Amino acid sequence: MTPRPFSAWERTIALRYLLTKKSHGGVALISIISFAAIALAVAALIITMSIMNGFRTELSAKILGFNGHAYLVGGNMTPADRLAMVRRIRAVPGVVEATPVVESQALVQGPMAAAGAVVRGIDPADLRATPIIAGNIKTGSMAGFGKGDEGGEEVLVGQKLADTLGLAAGDPISIISPSGGSTAFGTLPPRKTYVIGGLFSVGMSEYDQTFIYMPLNQAQLFFGRDTAVDFIEIKLDDPDKAPGMKHALAAAAGPGAIVSDWTEKNQAYFGALQVERNVMRMIFMFIVALAALNIISGLVMLVKNKGRDIAILRTIGAGRGAILRIFFMSGALIGVAGTLAGLVFGLVFCLNIEAIQRFIEWVTGVQVFNADVYFLAHVPARVDWLEVTLVCLWSLFAAFSFTLLPAWRASRLDPVEALRNE
Length: 422
What we know:
Blueprint: H1 8-18, H2 25-66, E1 70-73, H3 79-90, E2 95-109, E3 114-122, H4 124-128, H5 131-134, E4 137-140, E5 154-158, H6 159-165, E6 172-176, E7 181-183, E8 186-188, E9 191-200, H7 205-208, E10 211-215, H8 216-222, E11 231-236, H9 242-253, E12 258-261, H10 262-265, H11 267-305, H12 307-315, H13 320-351, H14 353-364, H15 371-374, H16 385-411, H17 415-421
Parallel strand pairs: 3-10, 5-9
Antiparallel strand pairs: 1-11, 1-12, 2-3, 2-6, 2-11, 4-9, 5-10, 6-9, 7-8
């Protein structure tokens, strides 16, 4: 009776060949190297792709949480017309918020330094409904924002910008507008002193060191907008729907409205991230394949050392298929073990990446992740289980593929010639 493929005796011999004797230590050493190379390559690919996914997810969340998902600009209109338009936009299915905004660059001064900033005028109620700002006030509060005489003299300042200027909550801050007014002494830029009501930190340095929030009516007055706004910022329940909702938003806004979305505003940035991600994936997939190539060296030596055993197995009835399966399983076990080890190491690293970062910084005393350079406060990692599955499948495919050739050569070995050479 023909033995069943991958039967117990085939698996036993394959495992015994893999755990070869000390006299064949070269084969064992190459097997260990192959195992370690595959494990490290798989772990490196999982860690790299998870960190890049984390970067994209964190940056997208902060960019889309801080900014709108769609933007509407149009001609001048009265406050009553704008209020009616905002109500129509908010009635569009999928729209969460529509906020009139005044936004302008300005020069800000403190006791220690001066710096450029972006001043964003927004209605206090709309700002309190923005979680990324309202939920990240580090010192001070929003209690006085938009309250008091003339619509409120308090502003909210990014934490890093305040640190640069040497300011804290409760301190005065001077803001100079770039659009000057004509006087008898020439054109002079408007300048006004406000009080810092609170300092916010959203965890992205590009925003924390640039933005100042001001009540809408104060911004209109300071920047000379009268009752106009620069644009209406629209937030959706799903940012990915923004490109497909532009027509509906424009129809709700009325004639003369121009709608753009976040994919257009950040197209170059997110496009560069996607290209980098694809290139890194391809490079590390080649590294995994190169690591799996080591299996060939070990199996070729194993076949050469086991020529006499192969001849004996053939003479007692083992077919070529059985020999091929024995050596295939010997090589495949290395690939499977290496892939599983790399999977476990990669996942443990990604799930504990913040603790690992803190430990390395504690041991070395060096900041390994500068928020001023990378825009985020810590190394992000997001495990994409579909991508992890594809990585493991690719590693197994490479290992199995490179195992077939030496296993096939072992199955073609002539037992008579093998015994004669012995």
